[in-house]
Amino acid sequence: MKNTEQEYDKLIFTQDENAIRNQPSDLCFLVGIPMYMYRVETYDFRSGLDFFEKAILKFKYMPGFPDAEIAKLLNIDVKLVRLVEYELFQKQLISSTGTLTAKGKALRDDSDGLIIDDTKRKIGYIFQMLDGSTLYPYYVENINEITGKMEGVWTISLKEGEKPKEAYEIFVKKEDSSKIIRPSQTDVLNIILSTSRIGNISYNDSMAKNLAINFVPDDSPIPVMVFTYLYLPQSDKDGIYKDDWQIQDPFGEQANVGLKFYIEDQHDENLREMISTCFNQAETDEKVQWADVDKQLNQEVEDKIAADFEDRFSELPSNLKQYIESVVKYYICLQRHNYNDQDYEQSYVINIQKVLEYVLLKDQEVRAQDYRRVKYTYYGSRNYASYISPDRRMNEIESLYNRLIRSSYVPNELSILAKHNNPQKSLKGYLLKYIFSCAINPYNRLRPLIMRSSTIATILKIANLRNENAHGTTETEQNSLTREKIDGLYNFTNKFINDYINL
To answer: Which residues are CB-neighbours of 214 under 8 A, at least 6 positions away?
Structure first.
């Protein structure tokens, strides 16, 4: 099954020519993922400063502070101090005499952002899934265009002179082009910050303005086909493979767990059959063939759902059931691997997020009139006079907490989010809209389930858990969740859904 007869403006395969020949596993095949692409022009920028750069920049605020003394206080070699000073000079943050430049003074107390060079312009790319709302979470500086043709399957030429390769086009649910939500300048900024590993800075309108973000030639989505490898990871032992397939990040070298989830969410039966055909005979860490591991896992998931969830679980909408089943699946996988597998961990967290998002989005669907009033009352409309300013929205959140939750403490994240004029389409954004909806209709169905300070705090923590600061993961990175936290997340989700069933 194919998406449409639509022609794609560009065929793309990674930003690294070396990655073309470096297959991630002996068991792999090429897939094409239809996306939309936007060309983005900005001022040239670099990511913020590291620890030593920040520290030395602050010392340089005091003229005449000797390098030897800086080295002593930081417990590093004086040669490293001088090397860092040279880097700061190259970034135009200190002068040749070692004093702070105007740019350095501006960055001294806020060195976690971007270093912007307004004398140069650069072109980068952001991508959007065909559902029209989900943005690929990384800013891409370079793309590698390839040639190919579609005749049942894609035949692509990865490099001139090399033998063409076949690739399967993944069926993706496509939103009507007229309903595509174009990314905003703030969206682009947040993606740049995330890709640059700059922490949790967001909704900084002044930074977006300083970058001078511009879509080239405009913000019309460009249809592209992005190719990458779907593969079964190899184990440390020769001829042995892990028990779950992965998708290589199209613009990086590691697995992309979020993209895997997106593909699974399309429920492409032909792809499932292809995966089964390619991987069924593979020997796994479980000392059985991959096909048998899959069957055993599915049975364990079924048994655990029967044991842990209310009898009316079967009456839940199919999409919600699938998200919950995936939560259970990856929880079991984490237990099998001694709670020590970052890919499973990320898949686990993503699916918990999807469970919560589904519940909140379903509420928006059921109470559409209430949410329209939320939009008009709190975010304004050309035809609606009662518009509340960002500061008043923040005050309103505090008032709602006092009135409906009986708590004077409002999570700082919610206060900041409330001030933004265009809440992001994410778990946090949906939660904020739900809380505002309680002012419109305090007797809604979900109030006993969600409007508790502990529940809101947990949902915010879950929203922050997904690692969007890097393309995939590396073996040297440490897992972010302990066994206790993983178990705690499962217990929360289990109770949340059982309570939801009984509302």
So the answer is: 40, 41, 42
254 vs 405, more confident: 405
- Kindly report the number of other CB atoms within 10 A of residue 476's CB atom: 5
pLDDT of residue 57: 79
DSSP, collapsed to helix, strand or coil, labels residue 215 as: strand
| Residue 40, pLDDT score | 94
- 394, 432 contact by CB (below 8 A): no
Q: Enumerate the domain spans of the chain.
A: 10-44+119-259, 50-111
| Rg of the chain on CA atoms, in Å | 25
471 burial level (CB within 10 Å; 0-12, 13-18, 19+): buried
Place of tokens 């069924």: 280
Rounded to a whole number of angstroms, the distance between the first and last alpha carbons of the chain is 39
User: Cβ distance 481 to 340 under 8 Å?
Assistant: no
Question: Collapsing DSSP states into helix, strand and coil, what is residue 42?
Answer: strand
Tens digits of residue pLDDT in 418-455: 777 656 678 888 999 999 999 899 999 999 999 999 99
Residue 282, classed as helix, strand or coil, is coil
Tokens (6 digits) for 379: 């975010």
Phi-psi region of 11 (alpha: psi -120 to 50; beta: other; left: phi over 0): beta
Q: Which of 238, 278, 239, 233 is nearest to 260 (CA)?
A: 233
Q: Could you give the CA distance from residue 105 to residue 57 in angstroms, rounded to a whole number?
A: 9
Q: Please tell me the predicted confidence (pLDDT) of residue 238.
A: 78
Residue 22, burial from CB neighbour count under 10 angstroms (0-12, 13-18, 19+):
exposed
Q: What pTM, to 2 d.p., does this model score?
A: 0.69
Mutual angle of helices 483-501 and 453-465, in 10-degree steps: 120
Q: What is the 3-state secondary structure (H, E, C) of 93-141?
A: CECCCCCECHHHHHHHCCCCCCEEEEEEEEEEEEEEECCCCCECCCCEC
Average pLDDT, the chain: 82
Give me the residue label for tokens 């190919």. Answer: 148
Q: Which amino acid is at 138?
A: Y
Structure tokens at 452: 């508790």
At 495, is the secondary structure helix, strand, or coil?
helix
The Cα-based distances of 469 to 53, 195, 291, 416 in angstroms read: 21, 6, 34, 21
β-bridge mates for residue 41, sequence order: 123, 214
Residue 112: CB partners within 8 Å, gap ≥ 6? Answer: 48, 49, 198, 199, 201
pLDDT of residue 113: 61
**50-111 is classed in which CATH architecture?**
Orthogonal Bundle (1.10)
Helix (H, G, I), strand (E, B) or coil at 289: strand
Residue of 211, 163, 160 whose CA lies nearest to 185:
211
Residue 489 backbone phi and psi in degrees, to 5? -65, -40
